[in-house]
Amino acid sequence: MERGKLIADRYELIGRLGRGGMGEVWAARDRVLHREVALKLLDLDGIAQADLPRRFEREAVAAAQIVHPNVAALYDRGIHDDVLFLVMEKVDGQTLTARLQAESPFPLTRAVAIASSVCAALEAAHRAQVIHYDIKPHNVIVTGDGLVKVIDFGIAGFVQAAFTVARSSQLTPAGTPEFGAPEQFLTERGDERSDLYALGGMLFAMLAGRPPFTGHNSIAVVRRKLDEEAPPLDAFRPGLPPEVTALVTELLERDPDRRPQSAEQVQQRLQALLASCAAAEAPTAAMPPPPRTRLMDDTRQAPRPPSPDSWKSASTDETPFTADALLPRRFTNDLDIEFARIAEDTRLSSEAGPSDLAGELARRDCTEVVVGVYAEQPGPHATPENPVYVSIQVFVFPDAATARDAHGYLGDGGGAWRLTIWSARDGGGLAPCPDKVHRSFRWRYSQRVHRYVTVALAYRADLTNDGSIRPWLAAASRKAAVSAGPQNHHG
Prior knowledge:
It is a single chain. By secondary structure, the protein is α+β, with helices and mostly antiparallel strands. Helix content is 31%, strand content 22%. It has 14 helices and 17 strands. Strands 1-2-3-4-6-5 form a six-stranded antiparallel beta sheet, with helices on one face. Strands 10-11-12-13-17-16 form a six-stranded antiparallel beta sheet. Helix 3 packs antiparallel against helix 8 (263-281) and helix 5 (192-208) packs across helix 7 (242-251). 42% of the residues are buried. Its EC number is 2.7.11.1. It is an enzyme of class 2 (transferase).
Protein backbone atom coordinates (compact mmCIF):
# COMPACT_ATOMS: atom_id res chain seq x y z
CA MET A 1 0.00 0.00 0.00
CA GLU A 2 1.16 3.54 -0.68
CA ARG A 3 0.19 7.07 0.32
CA GLY A 4 -2.75 8.46 -1.65
CA LYS A 5 -4.29 5.08 -2.48
CA LEU A 6 -8.08 5.02 -2.18
CA ILE A 7 -9.63 2.09 -0.31
CA ALA A 8 -13.21 1.15 -1.18
CA ASP A 9 -13.56 4.41 -3.14
CA ARG A 10 -13.78 6.24 0.17
CA TYR A 11 -10.73 6.08 2.44
CA GLU A 12 -7.59 7.89 1.27
CA LEU A 13 -4.35 6.63 2.81
CA ILE A 14 -2.38 9.49 4.40
CA GLY A 15 0.47 7.92 6.32
CA ARG A 16 1.42 4.53 7.71
CA LEU A 17 1.19 4.34 11.50
CA GLY A 18 2.55 0.84 11.95
CA ARG A 19 3.21 -2.54 10.40
CA GLY A 20 2.59 -5.99 11.88
CA GLY A 21 2.85 -9.61 10.90
CA MET A 22 -0.55 -9.63 9.20
CA GLY A 23 -0.83 -6.15 7.74
CA GLU A 24 -0.56 -2.43 8.30
CA VAL A 25 -2.28 0.43 10.11
CA TRP A 26 -2.69 3.73 8.26
CA ALA A 27 -3.96 7.16 9.05
CA ALA A 28 -6.61 7.80 6.42
CA ARG A 29 -9.14 10.42 5.36
CA ASP A 30 -12.79 9.47 5.08
CA ARG A 31 -13.87 11.42 1.99
CA VAL A 32 -17.56 10.95 2.74
CA LEU A 33 -17.65 12.16 6.36
CA HIS A 34 -14.56 14.40 6.01
CA ARG A 35 -12.73 13.09 9.06
CA GLU A 36 -9.50 11.31 9.86
CA VAL A 37 -9.72 7.62 10.72
CA ALA A 38 -7.38 4.74 11.41
CA LEU A 39 -7.45 2.06 8.72
CA LYS A 40 -6.27 -1.45 9.57
CA LEU A 41 -5.44 -3.67 6.60
CA LEU A 42 -5.35 -7.40 7.37
CA ASP A 43 -3.42 -9.38 4.78
CA LEU A 44 -4.62 -12.97 5.06
CA ASP A 45 -2.92 -14.20 1.91
CA GLY A 46 -1.88 -17.83 2.25
CA ILE A 47 -4.31 -18.67 5.05
CA ALA A 48 -6.58 -21.20 3.40
CA GLN A 49 -9.79 -20.96 5.40
CA ALA A 50 -12.93 -20.53 3.34
CA ASP A 51 -14.96 -19.15 6.23
CA LEU A 52 -12.57 -16.26 7.01
CA PRO A 53 -14.68 -13.53 5.33
CA ARG A 54 -17.78 -14.71 7.19
CA ARG A 55 -15.96 -14.79 10.54
CA PHE A 56 -14.35 -11.44 9.78
CA GLU A 57 -17.82 -10.00 9.22
CA ARG A 58 -19.11 -11.53 12.47
CA GLU A 59 -16.21 -10.23 14.55
CA ALA A 60 -16.45 -6.76 13.05
CA VAL A 61 -20.20 -6.52 13.63
CA ALA A 62 -19.74 -7.69 17.21
CA ALA A 63 -16.96 -5.17 17.88
CA ALA A 64 -19.13 -2.39 16.42
CA GLN A 65 -21.65 -2.95 19.21
CA ILE A 66 -19.19 -1.63 21.80
CA VAL A 67 -19.90 2.05 22.38
CA HIS A 68 -17.81 3.23 25.31
CA PRO A 69 -15.50 6.21 25.96
CA ASN A 70 -12.61 3.86 26.80
CA VAL A 71 -12.92 1.91 23.54
CA ALA A 72 -11.77 3.17 20.14
CA ALA A 73 -14.91 2.95 18.00
CA LEU A 74 -15.11 0.66 14.97
CA TYR A 75 -16.78 2.54 12.09
CA ASP A 76 -16.66 0.27 9.03
CA ARG A 77 -15.25 -2.93 7.54
CA GLY A 78 -14.92 -4.48 4.12
CA ILE A 79 -12.72 -6.21 1.55
CA HIS A 80 -10.56 -4.34 -0.97
CA ASP A 81 -8.36 -6.19 -3.50
CA ASP A 82 -8.51 -9.35 -1.36
CA VAL A 83 -7.34 -7.43 1.71
CA LEU A 84 -9.68 -7.14 4.68
CA PHE A 85 -9.89 -3.65 6.12
CA LEU A 86 -11.27 -2.15 9.31
CA VAL A 87 -12.01 1.55 9.79
CA MET A 88 -11.58 2.72 13.37
CA GLU A 89 -11.59 5.89 15.41
CA LYS A 90 -8.19 7.58 15.15
CA VAL A 91 -6.96 8.21 18.68
CA ASP A 92 -4.23 10.82 19.14
CA GLY A 93 -1.99 10.03 22.06
CA GLN A 94 0.76 7.74 23.30
CA THR A 95 0.57 4.02 23.78
CA LEU A 96 0.89 2.80 27.33
CA THR A 97 4.08 1.09 26.16
CA ALA A 98 5.60 4.49 25.36
CA ARG A 99 4.41 5.91 28.69
CA LEU A 100 6.03 3.01 30.56
CA GLN A 101 9.28 3.48 28.65
CA ALA A 102 9.31 7.16 29.62
CA GLU A 103 8.38 6.67 33.27
CA SER A 104 8.29 3.35 35.03
CA PRO A 105 7.05 2.25 37.48
CA PHE A 106 3.93 4.39 37.79
CA PRO A 107 2.60 6.00 40.95
CA LEU A 108 -0.03 3.77 42.54
CA THR A 109 -3.02 6.04 41.86
CA ARG A 110 -2.18 6.48 38.19
CA ALA A 111 -1.66 2.75 37.65
CA VAL A 112 -4.96 1.87 39.34
CA ALA A 113 -6.81 4.60 37.41
CA ILE A 114 -5.52 3.31 34.05
CA ALA A 115 -6.36 -0.27 35.03
CA SER A 116 -9.86 0.87 36.00
CA SER A 117 -10.36 2.54 32.59
CA VAL A 118 -9.21 -0.60 30.78
CA CYS A 119 -11.48 -2.69 33.00
CA ALA A 120 -14.41 -0.42 32.12
CA ALA A 121 -13.67 -1.10 28.45
CA LEU A 122 -13.63 -4.85 29.20
CA GLU A 123 -16.99 -4.58 30.97
CA ALA A 124 -18.55 -2.98 27.91
CA ALA A 125 -16.97 -5.47 25.52
CA HIS A 126 -17.88 -8.55 27.52
CA ARG A 127 -21.48 -7.35 27.76
CA ALA A 128 -21.44 -7.30 23.95
CA GLN A 129 -20.01 -10.84 23.95
CA VAL A 130 -16.67 -9.61 22.57
CA ILE A 131 -13.34 -10.78 23.98
CA HIS A 132 -10.16 -8.90 23.15
CA TYR A 133 -7.59 -11.71 23.58
CA ASP A 134 -4.62 -9.33 23.33
CA ILE A 135 -4.86 -6.77 26.14
CA LYS A 136 -1.37 -5.29 26.48
CA PRO A 137 0.23 -1.84 26.87
CA HIS A 138 0.65 -1.47 23.12
CA ASN A 139 -3.13 -1.75 22.64
CA VAL A 140 -3.88 0.97 25.20
CA ILE A 141 -3.57 4.63 24.19
CA VAL A 142 -3.51 7.54 26.64
CA THR A 143 -4.61 10.82 25.06
CA GLY A 144 -3.20 14.23 25.86
CA ASP A 145 -6.04 14.97 28.29
CA GLY A 146 -5.55 11.65 30.09
CA LEU A 147 -8.39 9.63 28.52
CA VAL A 148 -7.57 5.92 28.20
CA LYS A 149 -8.62 4.15 24.99
CA VAL A 150 -8.36 0.42 24.26
CA ILE A 151 -7.93 -0.41 20.58
CA ASP A 152 -8.47 -3.53 18.44
CA PHE A 153 -11.48 -4.97 20.30
CA GLY A 154 -12.71 -8.08 18.52
CA ILE A 155 -9.92 -7.84 15.97
CA ALA A 156 -7.36 -9.66 18.10
CA GLY A 157 -9.79 -12.53 18.59
CA PHE A 158 -10.36 -12.75 14.86
CA VAL A 159 -6.64 -12.72 14.11
CA GLN A 160 -5.99 -15.40 16.70
CA ALA A 161 -8.66 -17.70 15.29
CA ALA A 162 -7.03 -17.53 11.86
CA PHE A 163 -4.15 -19.66 13.18
CA THR A 164 -3.69 -23.05 14.79
CA VAL A 165 -2.47 -21.94 18.19
CA ALA A 166 -0.98 -25.31 19.08
CA ARG A 167 1.94 -24.71 16.69
CA SER A 168 4.82 -23.05 18.51
CA SER A 169 5.71 -21.05 15.42
CA GLN A 170 2.32 -19.32 15.72
CA LEU A 171 2.47 -18.52 19.43
CA THR A 172 2.49 -14.76 18.98
CA PRO A 173 -0.89 -14.44 17.21
CA ALA A 174 -2.51 -16.31 20.10
CA GLY A 175 -1.74 -13.34 22.33
CA THR A 176 1.36 -11.46 23.40
CA PRO A 177 3.46 -13.87 25.49
CA GLU A 178 4.27 -11.35 28.24
CA PHE A 179 0.59 -10.57 28.87
CA GLY A 180 -1.57 -13.32 27.34
CA ALA A 181 -3.23 -15.87 29.64
CA PRO A 182 -1.65 -19.35 29.83
CA GLU A 183 -4.70 -21.09 28.34
CA GLN A 184 -4.40 -19.03 25.16
CA PHE A 185 -1.15 -20.81 24.30
CA LEU A 186 -2.63 -24.30 24.59
CA THR A 187 -5.42 -25.76 22.48
CA GLU A 188 -7.99 -23.54 24.20
CA ARG A 189 -9.03 -20.13 22.97
CA GLY A 190 -9.81 -18.73 26.40
CA ASP A 191 -12.71 -16.55 27.49
CA GLU A 192 -13.46 -13.30 29.34
CA ARG A 193 -11.19 -14.39 32.18
CA SER A 194 -8.26 -14.42 29.74
CA ASP A 195 -8.70 -10.67 29.28
CA LEU A 196 -8.71 -10.28 33.08
CA TYR A 197 -5.41 -12.17 33.32
CA ALA A 198 -3.87 -9.77 30.80
CA LEU A 199 -5.26 -6.82 32.78
CA GLY A 200 -3.49 -8.20 35.86
CA GLY A 201 -0.26 -8.43 33.89
CA MET A 202 -0.57 -4.81 32.80
CA LEU A 203 -1.25 -3.63 36.34
CA PHE A 204 1.78 -5.63 37.50
CA ALA A 205 3.94 -3.99 34.79
CA MET A 206 2.74 -0.48 35.67
CA LEU A 207 3.55 -0.99 39.36
CA ALA A 208 6.69 -3.14 39.11
CA GLY A 209 8.24 -1.65 35.98
CA ARG A 210 8.34 -5.05 34.24
CA PRO A 211 5.92 -7.81 33.20
CA PRO A 212 5.38 -10.67 35.64
CA PHE A 213 7.12 -13.16 33.32
CA THR A 214 10.21 -12.55 31.21
CA GLY A 215 12.49 -14.82 29.18
CA HIS A 216 15.04 -14.90 26.38
CA ASN A 217 12.33 -15.60 23.78
CA SER A 218 8.57 -15.92 23.46
CA ILE A 219 8.52 -19.69 23.88
CA ALA A 220 10.49 -19.44 27.13
CA VAL A 221 8.02 -16.87 28.50
CA VAL A 222 5.04 -19.06 27.61
CA ARG A 223 6.70 -22.13 29.10
CA ARG A 224 7.19 -20.31 32.40
CA LYS A 225 3.55 -19.22 32.39
CA LEU A 226 2.41 -22.78 31.91
CA ASP A 227 4.71 -24.22 34.59
CA GLU A 228 5.10 -21.52 37.27
CA GLU A 229 2.95 -19.33 39.44
CA ALA A 230 3.27 -15.60 38.85
CA PRO A 231 5.82 -13.91 41.13
CA PRO A 232 4.40 -11.81 43.97
CA LEU A 233 4.10 -8.13 43.11
CA ASP A 234 5.51 -6.99 46.47
CA ALA A 235 8.77 -8.78 45.67
CA PHE A 236 9.41 -6.03 43.11
CA ARG A 237 7.55 -3.17 44.80
CA PRO A 238 7.30 -3.49 48.57
CA GLY A 239 4.94 -1.33 50.57
CA LEU A 240 1.89 -1.48 48.30
CA PRO A 241 -1.51 -1.83 49.97
CA PRO A 242 -2.34 -5.52 50.50
CA GLU A 243 -5.59 -5.05 48.55
CA VAL A 244 -3.53 -4.21 45.45
CA THR A 245 -1.15 -7.15 45.69
CA ALA A 246 -4.06 -9.52 46.44
CA LEU A 247 -5.99 -8.37 43.35
CA VAL A 248 -2.96 -8.74 41.08
CA THR A 249 -2.26 -12.20 42.49
CA GLU A 250 -5.83 -13.34 41.82
CA LEU A 251 -5.86 -11.93 38.29
CA LEU A 252 -2.63 -13.79 37.47
CA GLU A 253 -3.83 -17.21 38.65
CA ARG A 254 -2.95 -19.92 36.12
CA ASP A 255 -6.34 -21.59 36.61
CA PRO A 256 -9.11 -19.37 35.16
CA ASP A 257 -11.56 -20.69 37.77
CA ARG A 258 -9.43 -19.12 40.53
CA ARG A 259 -9.44 -15.68 38.96
CA PRO A 260 -12.20 -13.09 39.43
CA GLN A 261 -15.00 -14.24 37.17
CA SER A 262 -16.09 -10.94 35.62
CA ALA A 263 -14.77 -7.51 34.73
CA GLU A 264 -17.55 -6.05 36.85
CA GLN A 265 -16.14 -7.73 39.96
CA VAL A 266 -12.65 -6.44 39.18
CA GLN A 267 -13.96 -2.94 38.50
CA GLN A 268 -15.66 -2.80 41.89
CA ARG A 269 -12.35 -3.60 43.57
CA LEU A 270 -10.42 -1.12 41.44
CA GLN A 271 -12.93 1.63 42.22
CA ALA A 272 -12.61 0.88 45.93
CA LEU A 273 -8.82 1.10 45.59
CA LEU A 274 -9.12 4.44 43.78
CA ALA A 275 -11.32 5.77 46.55
CA SER A 276 -8.84 4.71 49.23
CA CYS A 277 -5.96 6.22 47.22
CA ALA A 278 -7.84 9.52 46.96
CA ALA A 279 -8.51 9.51 50.69
CA ALA A 280 -4.85 8.73 51.44
CA GLU A 281 -3.62 11.50 49.14
CA ALA A 282 -6.04 14.12 50.51
CA PRO A 283 -4.34 16.79 52.64
CA THR A 284 -4.36 16.06 56.32
CA ALA A 285 -6.84 17.91 58.47
CA ALA A 286 -5.62 21.21 59.90
CA MET A 287 -5.17 21.70 63.64
CA PRO A 288 -8.46 22.59 65.34
CA PRO A 289 -8.98 26.35 65.64
CA PRO A 290 -8.57 28.04 69.03
CA PRO A 291 -11.70 28.73 71.09
CA ARG A 292 -13.82 31.45 69.53
CA THR A 293 -13.64 34.87 71.18
CA ARG A 294 -16.29 37.56 71.04
CA LEU A 295 -14.17 39.40 68.45
CA MET A 296 -13.97 36.29 66.31
CA ASP A 297 -17.72 35.74 66.68
CA ASP A 298 -18.37 39.24 65.39
CA THR A 299 -16.00 38.86 62.44
CA ARG A 300 -17.65 37.43 59.34
CA GLN A 301 -15.35 35.39 57.14
CA ALA A 302 -16.02 34.70 53.47
CA PRO A 303 -17.02 31.08 52.90
CA ARG A 304 -14.27 28.90 51.50
CA PRO A 305 -15.03 28.00 47.88
CA PRO A 306 -15.32 24.29 47.12
CA SER A 307 -12.44 22.56 45.42
CA PRO A 308 -12.98 21.98 41.68
CA ASP A 309 -11.95 18.36 42.20
CA SER A 310 -13.95 17.73 45.36
CA TRP A 311 -16.13 15.21 43.51
CA LYS A 312 -13.14 12.88 43.25
CA SER A 313 -12.97 12.38 47.02
CA ALA A 314 -14.46 9.23 48.49
CA SER A 315 -16.26 11.03 51.31
CA THR A 316 -16.67 14.68 50.27
CA ASP A 317 -18.53 16.09 47.30
CA GLU A 318 -19.26 19.81 47.21
CA THR A 319 -20.58 19.97 43.64
CA PRO A 320 -23.84 21.97 43.55
CA PHE A 321 -26.73 20.05 42.04
CA THR A 322 -27.37 22.59 39.30
CA ALA A 323 -27.28 22.58 35.52
CA ASP A 324 -24.30 24.94 35.32
CA ALA A 325 -22.28 22.76 37.72
CA LEU A 326 -23.10 19.45 36.02
CA LEU A 327 -23.67 20.28 32.35
CA PRO A 328 -21.32 21.86 29.80
CA ARG A 329 -22.52 24.87 27.86
CA ARG A 330 -21.17 23.34 24.66
CA PHE A 331 -19.33 20.21 23.56
CA THR A 332 -17.84 18.94 20.31
CA ASN A 333 -18.22 15.27 19.45
CA ASP A 334 -15.79 12.94 17.71
CA LEU A 335 -17.16 13.95 14.30
CA ASP A 336 -16.16 17.61 14.94
CA ILE A 337 -19.80 18.64 15.27
CA GLU A 338 -20.59 21.18 17.97
CA PHE A 339 -23.62 21.02 20.24
CA ALA A 340 -24.99 23.86 22.36
CA ARG A 341 -27.25 23.70 25.40
CA ILE A 342 -30.65 25.17 24.57
CA ALA A 343 -32.64 24.26 27.70
CA GLU A 344 -31.98 23.03 31.24
CA ASP A 345 -33.73 22.51 34.55
CA THR A 346 -33.80 20.42 37.73
CA ARG A 347 -36.72 17.97 37.84
CA LEU A 348 -38.07 15.41 40.28
CA SER A 349 -36.78 11.89 39.68
CA SER A 350 -40.41 10.77 39.34
CA GLU A 351 -40.41 12.64 36.02
CA ALA A 352 -37.38 10.73 34.69
CA GLY A 353 -39.45 7.75 33.59
CA PRO A 354 -42.38 5.47 34.46
CA SER A 355 -43.43 4.73 38.01
CA ASP A 356 -41.39 1.54 38.40
CA LEU A 357 -38.23 3.40 37.35
CA ALA A 358 -39.11 6.25 39.72
CA GLY A 359 -39.49 3.69 42.50
CA GLU A 360 -36.05 2.24 41.78
CA LEU A 361 -34.52 5.73 41.91
CA ALA A 362 -36.32 6.61 45.14
CA ARG A 363 -35.13 3.33 46.68
CA ARG A 364 -31.56 4.49 45.96
CA ASP A 365 -32.20 7.94 47.49
CA CYS A 366 -32.24 9.77 44.16
CA THR A 367 -34.97 12.42 44.36
CA GLU A 368 -33.98 14.92 41.65
CA VAL A 369 -32.32 14.93 38.24
CA VAL A 370 -30.59 17.69 36.32
CA VAL A 371 -31.84 17.80 32.73
CA GLY A 372 -30.32 19.48 29.69
CA VAL A 373 -31.20 19.58 25.99
CA TYR A 374 -28.55 20.18 23.32
CA ALA A 375 -28.92 21.01 19.62
CA GLU A 376 -26.49 20.42 16.77
CA GLN A 377 -24.94 23.68 15.61
CA PRO A 378 -24.27 24.67 12.00
CA GLY A 379 -20.60 24.98 11.24
CA PRO A 380 -17.82 23.99 8.84
CA HIS A 381 -18.54 20.28 9.34
CA ALA A 382 -22.30 20.40 9.92
CA THR A 383 -25.03 22.46 8.27
CA PRO A 384 -28.04 20.46 9.45
CA GLU A 385 -31.44 20.90 7.93
CA ASN A 386 -32.64 18.34 10.46
CA PRO A 387 -30.34 18.77 13.49
CA VAL A 388 -29.56 16.08 16.02
CA TYR A 389 -30.91 16.77 19.51
CA VAL A 390 -29.52 15.26 22.68
CA SER A 391 -31.47 14.87 25.93
CA ILE A 392 -29.26 14.49 29.03
CA GLN A 393 -30.28 13.50 32.55
CA VAL A 394 -27.80 13.55 35.45
CA PHE A 395 -28.76 11.45 38.47
CA VAL A 396 -27.06 11.94 41.84
CA PHE A 397 -26.82 9.24 44.50
CA PRO A 398 -25.56 9.23 48.11
CA ASP A 399 -22.25 7.53 47.28
CA ALA A 400 -20.28 5.88 44.50
CA ALA A 401 -21.36 2.36 45.44
CA THR A 402 -25.06 3.24 45.15
CA ALA A 403 -24.40 5.01 41.85
CA ARG A 404 -22.60 1.93 40.53
CA ASP A 405 -25.60 -0.22 41.39
CA ALA A 406 -27.97 2.30 39.80
CA HIS A 407 -25.82 2.48 36.67
CA GLY A 408 -26.33 -1.24 36.18
CA TYR A 409 -30.08 -0.67 36.27
CA LEU A 410 -30.18 2.48 34.17
CA GLY A 411 -27.60 1.20 31.71
CA ASP A 412 -28.54 -2.42 31.24
CA GLY A 413 -31.59 -3.29 33.31
CA GLY A 414 -35.29 -2.52 33.38
CA GLY A 415 -34.96 1.20 32.74
CA ALA A 416 -32.74 0.91 29.67
CA TRP A 417 -35.08 2.36 27.02
CA ARG A 418 -37.84 3.88 29.16
CA LEU A 419 -36.25 7.09 30.32
CA THR A 420 -38.00 10.35 29.50
CA ILE A 421 -36.69 12.08 26.39
CA TRP A 422 -36.72 15.84 26.95
CA SER A 423 -37.02 18.67 24.43
CA ALA A 424 -36.85 22.46 24.65
CA ARG A 425 -40.25 24.09 25.10
CA ASP A 426 -41.13 27.02 22.86
CA GLY A 427 -40.59 30.15 24.91
CA GLY A 428 -38.20 28.41 27.31
CA GLY A 429 -38.18 25.48 29.68
CA LEU A 430 -38.40 21.72 29.17
CA ALA A 431 -41.10 19.38 27.95
CA PRO A 432 -41.22 15.58 27.62
CA CYS A 433 -41.02 14.51 23.98
CA PRO A 434 -44.13 12.97 22.41
CA ASP A 435 -44.36 9.24 21.73
CA LYS A 436 -43.35 9.64 18.09
CA VAL A 437 -39.83 10.61 19.25
CA HIS A 438 -39.58 7.32 21.15
CA ARG A 439 -40.62 5.50 17.99
CA SER A 440 -37.92 7.13 15.85
CA PHE A 441 -34.37 5.83 15.51
CA ARG A 442 -32.44 7.02 18.55
CA TRP A 443 -29.21 6.23 20.38
CA ARG A 444 -28.56 6.11 24.09
CA TYR A 445 -25.36 6.19 26.16
CA SER A 446 -24.74 6.20 29.90
CA GLN A 447 -21.72 7.08 32.02
CA ARG A 448 -20.93 7.01 35.75
CA VAL A 449 -18.48 9.36 37.47
CA HIS A 450 -18.18 8.97 41.23
CA ARG A 451 -21.75 9.25 42.59
CA TYR A 452 -23.25 10.68 39.40
CA VAL A 453 -24.87 8.71 36.58
CA THR A 454 -25.38 10.54 33.29
CA VAL A 455 -27.68 9.23 30.57
CA ALA A 456 -27.78 10.89 27.14
CA LEU A 457 -30.22 10.06 24.34
CA ALA A 458 -29.89 11.45 20.80
CA TYR A 459 -32.44 11.66 18.01
CA ARG A 460 -32.81 13.66 14.80
CA ALA A 461 -35.38 16.39 14.31
CA ASP A 462 -37.05 14.68 11.35
CA LEU A 463 -37.55 11.56 13.54
CA THR A 464 -36.12 9.27 10.90
CA ASN A 465 -36.21 5.49 11.26
CA ASP A 466 -33.25 5.14 8.91
CA GLY A 467 -30.49 3.31 10.80
CA SER A 468 -27.78 4.97 8.68
CA ILE A 469 -28.04 7.94 11.08
CA ARG A 470 -26.60 5.75 13.84
CA PRO A 471 -22.95 7.01 13.67
CA TRP A 472 -24.11 10.60 14.16
CA LEU A 473 -26.46 9.73 17.01
CA ALA A 474 -23.91 7.45 18.68
CA ALA A 475 -21.18 10.10 18.51
CA ALA A 476 -23.52 12.76 19.90
CA SER A 477 -24.90 10.72 22.80
CA ARG A 478 -21.51 9.31 23.77
CA LYS A 479 -19.77 12.67 23.94
CA ALA A 480 -22.77 14.26 25.70
CA ALA A 481 -22.74 11.64 28.46
CA VAL A 482 -18.96 11.86 28.89
CA SER A 483 -18.99 15.68 28.90
CA ALA A 484 -21.67 15.94 31.61
CA GLY A 485 -20.87 15.44 35.28
CA PRO A 486 -19.13 17.07 38.25
CA GLN A 487 -16.00 17.90 36.23
CA ASN A 488 -17.95 20.92 34.90
CA HIS A 489 -17.97 22.57 38.34
CA HIS A 490 -15.05 24.95 38.87
CA GLY A 491 -15.88 26.48 42.22
